[in-house]
C-alpha cells in the first residue's frame, strides 16, 4: 500500500496571497481578534495559530491583516479536491485543506509514487495557484508525518526499508495524540524522541499514560497503522464556528452568535436531508484552553429550534468558565447524522409551525442570499467564521 498525504501550505494565507499580488512575499495574517492563519513569512517571525492578533503584531509589526473569506477558501478547496480525484479515485478528505490519497497499483499508468506526488504538486500549483506539500509512505500515519517534516511546499518520500530510520529521531510531538500535556509527561521521564517511545515498551507506556494512549503511542512508534484510505465516507457531523476576538463579550453577545451558527448548521442539515441527534458545543477561551460539551436528543431532528434549545443549555452550563476566562471562539456541530433524511415527530406536538418556518426561511435565503433574513440581535454585526468544522 502506498499513501500520499497532501496538505496545502498555510491555506487561508496562501489563498489571500494568490488573489492579491501585493501580499506575495509579505507577512500575512488572516483573522480578527485571533490569528486563524499566518503566511510562512509571518511564521518565520514566530507567529502561530491560534494566537491573539496583539501578540502576533508584537512579533511581526509589519504584518498585513486580512479578514477571512470563507467562500474563497471553500471554492479553492473544491478545486484542489477535484485535482486529487483526477489523480486517484481513492481520496479521503480529512479537512478543508488536506487529504489522504491511495496510489497503490497506479505505477503502470502514472509512474512511481514519487512521480505521482510530483505531478500532483505541479497540477495544484498550475490549476489552483496554491503551494502544497506531499508526504509519501506505506501508512497513513507516516505519510502525514512526512508531509509535516517536508513543509513548506515540499515533497518527502519515506522508503519502506527506511521507515524507522526516518521516524525514530523525530520529537515525540510528531506522534498523533501527543499534545503539550502528554509531551511534558514523556519528557519528565527523559523520553524525548519517537525512538525513545518505541524502546520504552507498551506496558510502561500504559502505566504512564493509560491503556488507550499507551497502546496507541506504542503502535505508532513502530509505524503500526493498518487504516486504509476510505473514499466516499459521508461526514459524521455538520458544524460551524466563529472567532470572536479577544475583547470582552457579554453573555448575550455570545448567545446571539450561537443562534446565528445554529441557523447556518440547521439549514445545511436540511439541504443535505441529514437529521442529527447529538448537539456539540465547542468553546475556546481567552487563555487558549478549549472545552467541548455535548448532549444527545431522544430522536434525530432537523429543527432549528430543537438544536438551538439544546445548544443554549450547554452554553449556560459553561457560563462560569466563560466569565472566568473570557471567550474567543464559539462553535456548534450536530453529529449522529442519519443518512436517510427521515425524522420521527417528537411528542408533545407543541409547535406545528416549526417545520414550515424553517422551510420558508431556507427558501428565502436560497433565493435572496444567506444574509437576506437574520436574527434581530445580529443586525449590524458580521459573523466571521473561523476554520470550518469538517468531516470526522
UniProtKB/TrEMBL annotation:
Keywords, A to Z, come to:
Cytoplasm, DNA damage, DNA repair, DNA replication, DNA-binding, DNA-directed DNA polymerase, Magnesium, Metal-binding, Mutator protein, Nucleotidyltransferase, Transferase
The UniProt record lists the EC number as 2.7.7.7
Record GO cellular component, one term? cytosol
Site residues by UniProt (Substrate discrimination) = 12
Catalyzed reaction equations: DNA(n) + a 2'-deoxyribonucleoside 5'-triphosphate = DNA(n+1) + diphosphate
Q: Where are the transmembrane segments?
A: none
Q: What is its main location?
A: cytoplasm
Cofactor note text:
Binds 2 magnesium ions per subunit.
Give the location in the cell: Cytoplasm
- Gene3D superfamilies from the UniProt entry: 3.30.70.270, 3.40.1170.60, 5' to 3' exonuclease, C-terminal subdomain, DNA polymerase, Y-family, little finger domain
Record flagged with keyword Oxidoreductase: no
Q: Please name the catalytic residues of this protein.
A: 98
Q: Which NCBIfam families match?
A: PRK02406.1, PRK03858.1
How does it associate, per the subunit comment?
Answer: Monomer.
The entry's function note states: Poorly processive, error-prone DNA polymerase involved in untargeted mutagenesis. Copies undamaged DNA at stalled replication forks, which arise in vivo from mismatched or misaligned primer ends. These misaligned primers can be extended by PolIV. Exhibits no 3'-5' exonuclease (proofreading) activity. May be involved in translesional synthesis, in conjunction with the beta clamp from PolIII.
Output this protein's name: DNA polymerase IV
Q: Which organism is it from?
A: Catenuloplanes indicus
